[in-house]
């Protein structure tokens, strides 16, 4: 299947994201990942980078951790199960997970592309991420954080 056909299928599959929410709409961070939580030695954890806060499907906030588990193997089986059990649902079992995961991975790739100048580390990383998204690299993927 060509790249264009895969993206067209993703767009069609993405309709499920709007038609079948994982749960009722809730307040969501919009950029939930481990790097956006500051855990002080004393006191409560603090969420950072809140410019995308809104109300929506919690799958958008749950997807990054599930993607770290499913596509990057950066979360252990035990930690992912503990997270899912504590939340009360496993977003991997939601039919809309793969489109949400793919859109998230595309966003992360676009961010690195915005840093690429043709010669730097961001350029090499962007090329690698694009190869992953095209299916040229098998999962689990290894991406460098930017």
Report the order of strands and helices: HHEEEEHHHH
The share of residues in extended strands comes to 5-15%
| Global mean pLDDT | 83
Going across the major beta sheet, what is the strand order? 1-4
> What structural class is derived from the secondary structure elements?
mainly alpha
**Regions with little confidence, pLDDT below 50 for 5+ residues:** 15-19
Report the C-alpha radius of gyration, rounded: 16 Å
The best one-word shape is globular
Residue share in helix: 40-55%
Tell me the number of strands. 4
Terminal residue distance? 30 Å
Question: Keywords, please?
Answer:
two-stranded antiparallel sheet; mainly alpha; two-stranded antiparallel ribbon; globular; 4 strands; about 150 residues; single chain
Structural account:
This protein is mostly helical. The protein has a domain at 3-21 and 58-133. The protein contains six helices and four strands. It has helices at residues 3-13, 15-19, 59-70, 77-87, 97-115, 121-133; strands at residues 26-28, 37-38, 46-47, 54-56. The strands form two sheets. A two-stranded antiparallel ribbon has the order 1-4. A two-stranded antiparallel sheet has the order 2-3. Strand 2 and strand 3 form a beta hairpin. Helix 3 crosses helix 5 and helix 5 (97-115) runs antiparallel to helix 6 (121-133). The model is unreliable at 15-19 (pLDDT under 50).
Blueprint of the fold:
Layout: H1 3-13, H2 15-19, E1 26-28, E2 37-38, E3 46-47, E4 54-56, H3 59-70, H4 77-87, H5 97-115, H6 121-133
Antiparallel strand pairs: 1-4, 2-3
């Amino acid at each position: 299947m060509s790249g264009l056909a895969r993206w067209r299928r993703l767009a069609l599959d993405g309709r499920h994201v709007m038609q079948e929410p994982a749960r009722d709409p809730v307040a969501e961070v919009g950029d939930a990942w481990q790097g956006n939580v500051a855990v002080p030695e004393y006191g409560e954890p603090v969420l950072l980078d809140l410019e995308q806060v809104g109300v929506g499907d919690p799958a958008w906030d749950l997807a990054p951790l599930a993607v770290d588990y499913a596509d990057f193997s950066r979360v252990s089986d035990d930690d992912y199960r503990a997270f899912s059990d504590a939340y009360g649902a496993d977003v991997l079992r939601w039919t809309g997970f793969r489109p949400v995961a793919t859109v998230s991975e595309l966003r992360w790739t676009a961010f690195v592309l915005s840093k690429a100048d043709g010669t730097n580390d961001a350029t090499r990383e962007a090329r690698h991420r694009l190869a992953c998204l095209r299916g040229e690299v098998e999962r689990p993927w290894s991406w460098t954080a930017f």
